[in-house]
Design a protein that fits this description.
This protein has 2 helices and 5 strands; from the N terminus they run βααββββ. It is an alpha+beta fold and 83 residues long. The protein has one domain. Strand 3 and strand 4 form a beta hairpin. The longest helix is centred in the first third of the chain and has 11 residues. It is globular and about 30 Å long. This is BrnT family toxin. It comes from Nitrospira lenta.
Length: 83
């Protein structure tokens, strides 16, 4: 699967939360990750939320959608949400 994101948003997220979108994308390789529909944020396109563990061992919550066969990461949050 191919992953993509807005580079400006990724830079801001890395600075604010200390986790890159590259690390966030690794959550999709967690065999125990859970994915849910996100109807509250699906006005323009169907969005989903995935909760899983990154390759760095962090629990991450990702908002994403599929566009033209690619997964677009919209945002990510640390599972502890204290960051």
């Amino acid at each position: 699967m191919i992953y993509e994101w807005d580079p400006r948003k990724a830079h801001a997220n890395k600075r604010k939360h200390g986790v890159s979108f590259e690390e966030a994308a690794s959550v999709f390789h967690d065999g125990a990750a859970l994915t849910y529909d996100d109807p509250d944020h699906s006005d323009d396109e169907p969005r989903e939320i995935t909760i899983g563990i990154s390759t760095e061992g962090r629990v991450l919550v990702l908002s994403h959608c599929e566009r033209e066969g690619r997964i677009r990461i919209i945002s990510r949050q640390a599972g502890d949400s204290n960051r």
